[in-house]
Every structure is written in C-alpha cells, then in structure tokens.
C-alpha cells in the first residue's frame, strides 16, 4: 500500500464518519485498523485521532477561510478532504504543506468536481498562507 492509497482510505473513512455523524476517535481507529496495512496503520490511527480530537478547531479554520460555504453546507467529500489535509499538516511534521495540498487537490479531482478541486485549493492555500 502506498501513502497515496492510505490517504485515500483515510479520506473515505472521514467521509463515512461525517455521513453517519459518528465523528469519534474510537470509530476512526477501528476503521483504520481494518482498512490500512503495514506502517500506514499506526500513522493513519494517529492522524484520525488527531483530527477527531481537533475537529472543532479544524472546522473553524475552514469556516474562517471559506468564502462561499460553511462546513455545515459543504459537500461531505470536500469537507473530508480538507479536514484530512489540515490534520495532516498539523499532525505530521514530515509531510510538507505543499504535498498535502497537492494530494487534497488530486483527491478532489478523483472524488468530487473540477470546481471543488479549485475551491479546496483556495481554502487550503488561504489557511496555510497564514502559517507562513
């Protein structure tokens, strides 16, 4: 399993949890254990735990930098992608911001619309520009 494949699975878990309204670390960790393999299991569990523990802060960042939609009205797949990218940048020191944003755009192109990929790029770019 590649890191890209693991990231895709994590995004799917985030989407499922948002759709079912079961955003908690225990559920996320169980799903990660079942779906990931190799060294991606620990990394995925840690990342999902971080995201679920900081979901309010992550959503606040998205809401602050989103011009059109707030998290409650966003397409769930777009929200899952942005949460994953923000969590990855905040929790994983070894992943450069540009890599995480690029991966988020690629996920949006695969699972959402061309407009979503541009929107996600703009929101994430605005969030991470503040970090500089």
Report what the structure shows.
- The model has no long low-confidence stretch (mean pLDDT 92).
- The chain is mainly alpha-helical and 132 residues long.
- It starts with a helix and ends with a helix.
- It is 78% helix and 0% strand.
- It has helices at residues 3-20, 25-35, 40-53, 55-65, 76-91, 97-111, 114-131.
In short:
With 132 residues, this protein is mainly alpha-helical. The protein is built from 7 helices and no strands.
Task: Please give the structural blueprint.
Blueprint: H1 3-20, H2 25-35, H3 40-53, H4 55-65, H5 76-91, H6 97-111, H7 114-131
Helix pairs in contact: 1-2, 1-5, 2-3, 3-5, 4-5, 5-6, 5-7, 6-7
Largest sheet: none
Strand content: under 5%
- Summarize the amount of helix as a percent range: over 70%
Low-confidence stretches: none
Please count the beta strands (DSSP E, at least 2 residues each): 0
What is the 3D shape?
Answer: globular
In DSSP terms (H or I, runs of 4 or more residues), the helix count works out at: 7
Q: Please state the average pLDDT score.
A: 92
């Amino acid at each position: 399993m590649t890191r890209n494949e693991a990231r895709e699975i994590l995004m799917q878990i985030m989407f499922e949890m948002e759709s079912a309204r079961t955003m908690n670390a225990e559920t996320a960790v169980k799903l990660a254990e079942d779906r990931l393999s190799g060294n991606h299991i620990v990394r995925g569990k840690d990342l999902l735990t971080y995201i679920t523990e900081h979901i309010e802060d992550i959503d606040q960042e998205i809401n602050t930098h989103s011009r059109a939609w707030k998290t409650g009205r966003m397409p769930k797949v777009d929200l899952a992608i942005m949460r994953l990218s923000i969590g990855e940048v905040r929790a994983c020191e070894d992943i450069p911001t540009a890599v995480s944003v690029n991966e988020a755009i690629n996920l949006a192109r695969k699972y959402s619309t061309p407009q979503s990929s541009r929107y996600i790029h703009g929101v994430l770019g605005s969030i991470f520009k503040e970090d500089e």
